[in-house]
Design brief:
By secondary structure, the protein is α+β, with helices and mostly antiparallel strands. The protein is 56% helix and 13% strand. It contains nine helices and seven strands.
């Protein structure tokens, strides 16, 4: 049987093929192959081999038995080496996931925070000016007879409407800028009480471009106390789940009318329960057990690295002592459920 090796380069310059080659060499597979060839050649050269001499047959059986024992020993060594290889691969993948958590793109975060700050200042000026215009306009038109206000299609009403739209738009931009600053805040290790409902709302605001054409979002946010957590990391979890849901809805051919992302929060005993549900294509039972594996993905290139769910689970389970589960029905949709301990990261530990 011929083994085919898929070579994947890694950052330290050592390839998987080189690692496998080293383990195969240590296991003595090449030695086995050489010994098989040698035994074959010796067997063919044995006196009486060609003529059917019983002594030659007996010696042949002894040599074959010795060869089988050698192959057995080498096979055990090879099996152990492969197990070590799998262990090293798993440890490397876990290290890469941890690196992905630790290496939050700080430069991009600082840039986003700076842009948000630059947006906030002029928007505040626009909002203040619009509020002043509305107040001044109301004072001015209060002394104008209704007949004059109504001339030319009621220009006073049109002007009032324009001022209100300026105020509304500036408030929305200010809200987006605040959400960007919150998401970009360099809170890599800090834990503090946080409002998860607010964190979900701000994340939805920033992710709107991902889902607006494929889903309507339904929010059912229950009353919950503030949770001691790293809210920046949890926003990353929320973002990953929302984007995954949007991709599932797009793959199912949903639009803004037929697609649905439902987010629920509730207090369940000592746990904060958060659910992210979509009515996309669902996850096949053949894939459901592997969705948290690093680099596992069914998406085409460019639509995810396959690390999103692995990172989300690491944040919820390993970093916040929580739980994360999934229920999915192919053709109907998927629901991810998170449980986070209330009070402190160890408060709800089982």
């Amino acid at each position: 049987m011929r083994a085919q090796l898929h070579i994947i380069a890694v950052e330290d310059g050592v390839t998987d093929a080189e690692i496998i080659e080293r383990h195969l060499a240590n296991a003595g597979l090449r030695c086995v192959v050489r010994q098989v060839k040698t035994e074959r050649d010796i067997t063919c050269a044995l006196p009486g081999h060609a003529s059917g001499d019983p002594r030659g047959d007996q010696e042949l059986r002894l040599r074959l038995a010795a060869l089988e024992e050698t192959v057995r020993i080498r096979t055990e060594s090879l099996t152990e080496a492969i197990a070590q290889l799998h262990k090293q691969t798993r440890l490397r993948q876990e290290a890469e996931i941890e690196l992905g958590l630790a290496q939050k793109p700080q430069a991009v975060g600082r840039l986003a925070a700076g842009i948000a700050h630059e947006i906030t200042t002029p928007i505040q000026h626009i909002s203040d000016s619009a509020l002043f215009l509305r107040s001044a306009f109301n004072e001015i038109v209060s002394g104008i007879p209704d007949t004059e206000q109504s001339s030319d299609g009621n220009p006073a009403a049109d002007l009032r409407f324009a001022i209100e739209k300026i105020i509304e738009g500036s408030e929305r931009v200010a809200t987006i800028a605040r959400a960007i600053k919150e998401l970009a805040h360099p809170d890599a290790t800090e834990r503090a009480p946080a409002n998860l409902n607010r964190a979900i709302e701000s994340t939805l605001l920033l992710a709107r471009n991902e889902y607006k054409s494929v889903a309507t979002v339904q929010l059912h946010l229950g009353e919950m106390p503030e949770i001691v957590c790293n809210v920046g990391e949890l926003r990353q979890v929320f973002l990953n789940l929302i984007v995954n849901a949007a991709h599932a809805l797009a793959d199912a051919g949903r639009d803004a009318n037929s697609g649905r992302i439902t987010i629920r929060t509730a207090l369940v005993g000592e746990w904060a329960q958060l659910q992210f549900e979509d009515n996309g294509h669902g996850i096949s039972r053949a894939f459901i057990d592997g969705i948290y594996d690093p680099y596992f993905t069914t998406k085409e290139a460019g639509r995810g690295s396959g690390r999103e769910l692995a990172i989300a689970r690491a944040i919820v389970v390993a970093k916040h002592s929580g739980r994360m589960s999934v229920e999915s029905t192919p053709g109907k949709g998927t629901c991810f459920t998170l449980y986070l301990p209330v009070g402190s990261p160890a408060a709800g530990r089982l």
